[in-house]
Structure formats: C-alpha cells, structure tokens
Amino acid sequence: MRGPVERIDLSAAELPTRWYNVIPDLPCPPEQYLDPVTREPATEDFMQALTPRALIGQEFSLERWVGIPAPVLDAYRLWRPTPLYRALALERELDTPAEIYFKFEGGSPTGSHKLNSALAQAYLARQEGIRCLVTDTGAGQWGCALALAGALMGVEVVVYMVRSSYFQKPYRRHLMELYGATVLPSPGEDTEFGRQLLAEDPDHPGSEGTAVSESIERVRRDEGARFSMGAFANHVLLHQTVFGLEARQQLEQIGARPDYLVASVGCGSNLGGLALPWVPDKLAGEEIEIVAAEPAACATLTKGEWREDSADSSGVGPLVRTYTLGHEFVPPPIHAGGLRYHGAAPLIGLLRHEGLIEARCYEQSTVFEAGRTFTRLHGMLPAPETAHAIRAVIEIANECSARHEKKTIVFSYSGHGLLDLGAYGEFIGSELEVSADEALRATLPAANA
Amino acid sequence: MRGPVERIDLSAAELPTRWYNVIPDLPCPPEQYLDPVTREPATEDFMQALTPRALIGQEFSLERWVGIPAPVLDAYRLWRPTPLYRALALERELDTPAEIYFKFEGGSPTGSHKLNSALAQAYLARQEGIRCLVTDTGAGQWGCALALAGALMGVEVVVYMVRSSYFQKPYRRHLMELYGATVLPSPGEDTEFGRQLLAEDPDHPGSEGTAVSESIERVRRDEGARFSMGAFANHVLLHQTVFGLEARQQLEQIGARPDYLVASVGCGSNLGGLALPWVPDKLAGEEIEIVAAEPAACATLTKGEWREDSADSSGVGPLVRTYTLGHEFVPPPIHAGGLRYHGAAPLIGLLRHEGLIEARCYEQSTVFEAGRTFTRLHGMLPAPETAHAIRAVIEIANECSARHEKKTIVFSYSGHGLLDLGAYGEFIGSELEVSADEALRATLPAANA
Predict the structure, then answer these.
(1) A151 vs B378: CB contact, 8 Å cut-off?
(2) How many helices (H) and strands (E) does chain A have?
(3) Residue B168 binned pLDDT confidence (cut-offs 50, 70, 90)
(4) Below-50 pLDDT ranges, chain A
(5) Taking CA atoms, what residue in A is nearest to B6?
(6) Planar angle of CA B18, B22, B25, nearest 5 degrees
C-alpha cells in the first residue's frame, strides 16, 4: 500500500513570475463599478480616493499576463511554490476510481491563500507613497495577511475587526498585533459611524458591514490611507492566480489534467485563484467542471440573483452587477466566517452567469464531518472554509464511483483550521446548535469588563 | 535589497532514508536504565512491559545508520523534506556579519518536529502487534503527534493530558480527538492513582508527573498497550536526526558549514535531532558550538546536576544518569510547556558532561520579545519553545557583530506558535505576571460545571 499522499513539488526556479488576467479571454468584460449615489460609472476620483492607482490599473486591464514585481516574488518565496498533493488516503477511503489532488495553500505564514494578494497590494501601495492601508476583517484571515504584508513591505495597517470576533476569537487579533497592525473592534469609538452604533447599543456585535463602513470613513478622513480588499475585486483574483498557475504546472509535470476544479466560495478569490487559468481551455471546448462549494446558509451562487448590488453590506462603496443575496442579507453565524458574504466577486458572478461555473451548497455539520475525515486520513486540519471544498470533492468522487469514471479532481486547500479548533471542538461535542449570538451574549460583558 | 529569506529546498528524492545513531561514535556509551526499585540495570522484562521491542532494540544499538521503514518514509512525505531558510531579514535587523539559517520543522501537520518520532514509534508498535500506545502530554504537542501517527499507522492512542491544560487549552485536545485519540485529563477517574488524587483535591491541576504515572498504570493493566515517549529516550533522538541530516545536506548544497547549532532544550529531542549528525565532526576537532537554549525557570543543562535520577517526575519509571534539577522539581508555569522538564535526555546529558554542548538560559519576557521580532520580520510565528532558540541566536549574532566575525548560525525552528497565541496575547498585554495557577482557579470550576 502506498502512503497517505503523493507530493508534486516545484523548484524555486519554477515559481510563476506573472499573474494571469482572464479578462481579455472572456466573451465579454466584467461591468464597471457604479457610484452608489449617482448610479453612474464611478469616476476616477471616486476610485482613487479609495484604492491605490496601480490596483485600479489592474482592475480592468486587458493585458493577459501581468508581471509579478520582484519584491513580491521575494516575499512569495517565504512559502511558495506550494506543494500539490495527491490525496491517496482519501481515494482509498472513498474507494473511488477518481484521482483527487489538492493544492496546499495552508502553509503560508498566515495560514491561507489570502497572503498572495496582500503582499501585492502592500507592495504596490508602498510604491506610490501610500502610508497606510485600511481594511475590514471578520474572523481575521484577511486581516492577518494584510498585517504581515504591511510589516514586510513597510506600510502601516489598520484593521477594523468585527466586534464579536475581536473579543471572542482573539487569536488572529493577537497575530495581527504581533505583525504590528492596529486592530480596532467594529463598531468602535474610532469613527463617527462606530460611535453612533455604540450609542444605540453598547454591546453591538458588529458585522462585515460595520467594519467596511468604518474603514471607508477612516480612509476618507486620512489622505495617506487607502482601502484594501481581501476578495471581490478583479485585481485580487488576478493576484490569486499564482496558485492556480502553479497547480497547472504541477499537473502537467505528471501528465495529468483536471476534470473538476473545486474550491469553496465566499466571494471568489479562492475559486478564481485556482480555476481562472483553465477558463480559456474551457471556453475552447475542453470538458472541465469548475465547482463552487458554498455553505447552505449563504449560498450566493446557488441561490442568489444576477443584478446590480452594493459590494459592501453598508452600501457606501461602489455598486456592481454580480450574483447576490442582497447587501442587507445577514448570514447566520456559521463557523466558516470567510464564506459569510452576500455577493460573489463580479468575475465569478460573470462566469456563473455565462454557465462556466457550477455551484453546490452544503450544511455545516456535513462540512465538519468531511473536515474530520480528511484530518484523520492526511493529518492536516482544514479551515471550515476549505472543508466545504472537501465536502464537495467527496460528493463528486462518490458520483465518479457510481458511474465508474476515472476522473481527475483538483481542489484548493485554501487554509488550515488550527485557529478554528474551537469550532471543531463544538462539532465534536455536537454543540453547534449553540449559536454564536448566545456565545456572544455570554462573552461580551466579561471581555468588556 | 533581497527578500526576507533565501530558501534551500531538497527534492523528494533527497529525503534521508536512514536515521543517524550517534552512540557508536561517542567516546563512551550512554548508561543503562536502572530499575527504580532494585537500582540494578532494568531487566528485559521490565523494559518490554513498557516499551515496544523494536524501540528497545534501537535504544542501545551500535549500528551507525538505521534504515527508515518505507511506510514511515511515505508518511514523512506529508511534509518532508522541510525547507532550510536563510533569515536575511533578521540578519539585516541585527546588522550582523553572521549568516543565520533555520531548519523549518513548523510545517508538519501537527506543527512541530515531534511527528518525526511519533510516526516511527506507531509504525514499529503496529508491526509487532501492539494494539494501543499510551502517552502523557502537557500542552499537547507530543500528544497531537502520536495521535496522528496512530491514525495513520492503525494503532489506538490514549493520551493522559495534564488536567489544567485539558480544560484551559482545549485546542490541541480537540486536534487529538479529531485524529481519533482518547484524551483523558490527568489526574482523572480512569486510574487508581488518578482517583486517589482527585479524592484528595477535586480541582487537582495535574502535572507531567501525574500523567506519566497514570500512563504507566494503564499500560501495566492492559497487555496490548505500551508506553510511548516523546523525548528523553535514545530512540527518540535517533528518529529526530532525520531533520538534522536534511539540514546538513542543504548546507552542503550551498557550500556552507555551521559554526553554531542552536536549539531549545526541554529534554533534548529537538537539539539532538539538529546537532547529533555533526557530533563526529566536532569530536574530530572541527570548531562547532552546539548551543542549548533553555528557560531560566527550568535550566536543566545550565543549572542541573549530573547524577542518577528518575526519568519521570513520579519515580515509577526507570532511573538513569543525566543532568537533572531533581525529579521532584516542579517548574513554574511558563508558556513554553515543552521546556518544563526536570531532566535532560541521557544522550544530551552525556554530551553536556563531555563538554560538547554549551547551555544558555533566558527569561520568558526576552524570549517572547525575540519571538515577536522574528514574526514581524519573517511572518512565521514561532512556538514559545522555538523562540528560546531565536533568543539565543540573536545573542550569538550580536556577539559576532561585536567581534566582527562572519560565522554561520543554524537553528531549529522546531514548531509554530499558532496555538500559543493566547500566551503571545498576554505578552502583548504585559499580563504575563498573571500566573497559570490563577488562571486555572478562574477556569476550572466553570469548565467542570
């Protein structure tokens, strides 16, 4: 019997030196952002007040390949190229004729794929003299990535962290602080909007919506600051293609090609990173299924509508057409915090609209069960977000078994779940029915004391 | 300016296929274990009742090279070979002429070097029909490693976890449970010894001593079970040489050789793993400093005595000659739980006695400061244990600066600190003076409720 995995490595020299930009290869370009007040295409001024110019330039670029700046490549070498693994033990457990591979993005210093874009954003901001990047974070994956990127590239980072996570899940907050970032609970005393919310409810738990609103208020009052996005924008998906391009090289190295590309989707930077490099092949007629794995509780691509909506839940940022559950939608407090987002990245929405992406959604308990199965077989504990992809892979592999089809399934192992062990512990104890709200009410007064 | 690191990789084909056994190369062999009752050399029966036969065979083997079984190699491929990094950013920060390298053992699925030995032990136990391995764990690094090894190799694992950690630091407990291990608080209701302690004090916080005693009681009542050690024994150090051998290949690949080999020491499996492969060079007259970094609060090699003592704090296991603070010594509750051990591994004690190892010890606050510095510069958060090595490296690099010496320093990055973020958070908040005992009193009643 062979071991739990086969590992396909790239040498340092094989690290991609360019990101892949899918836009020139699409049948139609993604739509422009709209000003939320005028509902007209957002002006250059509107965008530049929010976003570094270099990133605006990348947003609708028609260059197919965008060179990765040398200092970003140098920082990528902290953990890239990452391994591609064949999950032999999972194949045996499922007794499937399918071959299952996963691209391991869980080995980055901050624990997920998010750092691929954070480093690029911090470097480009620094290049144009931006002093400070401001962002919002829920559970903290993106906040950690940007905090480290700021430390490495020499940019201050301010993170508005959803107030309930700030107090209940302090581990990622501590990590951001170790990197030197300023982390503020949202709502908080730092902005007018935050003070207003706290005046109404001193125990306000906060949300991504409050954190985005406070971030934008901060950016608008500080000329040296810009807003940074961890997903959604086209440029974020562009930066994430570095891992899909690596995976493609690794598969080619062993003479394999994917029949299924699977990733969890909150907004889409993970699925985009993995799958965009294969979109031209699919458009050229190759049979490749691109599968978005979503939580049933926030099934944007499965159940959302294709329409113009606000990118942020507070409605102060730009509007754009995509799949959305409505920007007022408040997803229930599931543990995969990274998937609690009302809308898809516009590029992912467009691909879905064009019929290029299939979406599947799963209940939380079956997702944790899939995560546990994977952990026992391979040792690596997946983030709850990643466990959604694993849940989908198990379903697809079982379909392959039923049809006796030897397909190749490739999924994104987007992040580790070490800082989610509390949630896994609740799963083991079958205590998932205790809602985060209840936990919050039990915790906040003490934390505030 | 170059990036934060240079990375030296080995290909999959370069994974060592043999462990290095230092014993035949030593001026004198390590001493035999003694029966704690008779104080005579422990009999074959005494040892075999505790330990798998294959491991007893390795304990005093005179074979210089021991082949790594193929299934262990297959499991090593989950994360091995591991990278060797040159810490360029730390060199720049310290403005030192020294070159600083670190061997990155923090990327294993369980987060530390411990898995190197756990996989070997679980495989060899399974080969001789042992149904169950029983072990003790403090904060849980070793328990996690053995739990995963058991899951991969098909051996049941029972872990007695220090009761205070069981309730206060549940993350690693959850990970062990996800791997399928049975985790019991020590003291607990499962053994006579545990019941006795709880009858005396229902809130007994436990210690490594209680956990070892309960483990041995369990092994003695269950014929299909054996005790497994995460450090101390010669065979554990043997298994850990896999990473020192890799580091040696990596340095040779770039034409470098170490002037300093640095690792934190609780018992010695980490320092042994890194440094033993260079002991013959040192014995042949090469100038290599082997440096043990210890906590001031438990400075076994710096302040201990060279004498016969019990390997376990309860005194039921074998006696052996080594450096010890006395098996009754109860170290203060520092955060580097893996370094809270009263004695050195006999091989490490012997090397210290022979003048082959230098020991340095550090206060906890300076260790956390070193950990934070490293984290900001390189992104990777070191375990508090690993931060001791970093603290020593900073001191040595500064000595090199003062003497204008271009030396090569190599240290073991033995594990990540993601599950120690609570401790780092206390450090950030300068709350380290809150003792674990106080925290325990605040926590246990609620956890028990």
Answers:
(1) no
(2) 19, 15
(3) confident
(4) 431-449
(5) A77
(6) 120
**Do A83 and A2 form a contact (C-beta atoms < 8 A)?**
no
Query: What residue segments make up the domains of chain B, in order of their start?
Result: 69-111+234-422
| pLDDT of amino acid A311 | 81
Which residue in B6, B151, B372 is closest to A178 by CB distance?
Answer: B372
Instruction: Give the right CATH number for A69-111+234-422 from 3.40.50.1100, 3.40.50.920, 3.30.565.10, 3.40.50.720.
Output: 3.40.50.1100
- Nearest chain A residue to B86 by CA: give it: A78
Yes or no: say if B181 and B158 are a contact pair by the CB < 8 Å rule. yes
Residue A442 token pair:
């039990």
Contact list in A for residue B115 (CB cut-off 8 A) is 379
Contact state of A74 with B2 under an 8 Å Cβ cutoff: yes
Q: Find the range with the poorest average confidence among A382-391, B36-45, B70-79.
A: B36-45
Q: At B449, is the pLDDT very low, low, confident or very high (cuts 50, 70, 90)?
A: very low
Query: How is B142-189 classified by DSSP, letter by letter?
Result: HHHHHHHHHHHHT-EEEEEEEHHHHHH-HHHHHHHHHTT-EEEEES-T
**Predicted complex ipTM:** 0.93
A341 touches chain B (CB under 8 A): no
- Residue B1 has a pLDDT of 64
Q: Could you tell me if A333 lies within 8 Å of chain B, comparing CB atoms?
A: no
In this predicted structure, what is the pLDDT of residue B332? 80
pLDDT at A1: 64
For residue B416, list its beta bridge partners.
Answer: B382
Inter-chain CB proximity A3 and B179 less than 8 Å: no
Confidence of residue B430 (pLDDT cuts 50, 70, 90): low
CA–CA distance, B113 with A47 (Å, rounded to integer): 48
A391 CB-contact burial (10 Å; exposed 0-12 / middle 13-18 / buried 19+):
buried
Cβ <8 Å between A379 and B109: yes
Report how far apart the first and last C-alpha atoms of chain B are (Å, whole number). 57
Alpha helices in B262-416 (DSSP H): 269-275, 279-283, 300-303, 346-353, 364-378, 384-403
Of B402 and B317, the one with more pLDDT: B402
Q: Are B275 and B358 in contact (CB under 8 A)?
A: no
Distance, CA of A232 to CA of B285 (rounded, Å): 61
A102 touches chain B (CB under 8 A): no
Long-range contacts of A31-34 (CB under 8 A, 24+ apart): A31/A320, A31/A321, A31/A346, A32/A60, A32/A320, A33/A311, A33/A318, A33/A319, A33/A320, A34/A308, A34/A318, A34/A319, A34/A320
Question: So what's the pLDDT on residue B436?
Answer: 41
Residues 6+ apart with CB under 8 A from A7: A83, A84, A85, A86, B12, B77, B78
In this predicted structure, what is the pLDDT of residue A439? 42
User: Tell me: the pLDDT tens digits for B299-354?
Assistant: 999 999 999 998 877 788 889 999 999 988 878 888 888 888 889 999 999 999 99
Q: Among residues A217, A211, A174, which one has the least CA distance to residue A192?
A: A217
What is the reported pLDDT for B337?
83
Cβ–Cβ < 8 Å for A134, A227? yes
Q: Which residues in chain B have Cβ-Cβ distances shorter than 8 Å to A4?
A: 74-75, 78, 152
- What pLDDT, on a 0 to 100 scale, did the predictor assign at position A314? 76
> Is residue B166 within 8 angstroms of chain A, CB to CB?
no
B309 in Cβ contact with B322 (< 8 Å): yes
Cis status of the peptide bond prior to B277, with omega within 30 of 0: no
pLDDT at B445: 35
Percent of chain B with pLDDT over 90: 84
Alpha carbon distance B409, B111 (integer Å): 23
In the block, residue with structure tokens 């090469």: B286
Q: Are A78 and B379 in contact (CB under 8 A)?
A: yes
Is the per-residue pLDDT at B234 higher than 90? yes
**Amino acid letter, residue A278:** W
Contact yes or no for B109 and A380 at CB 8 A: yes
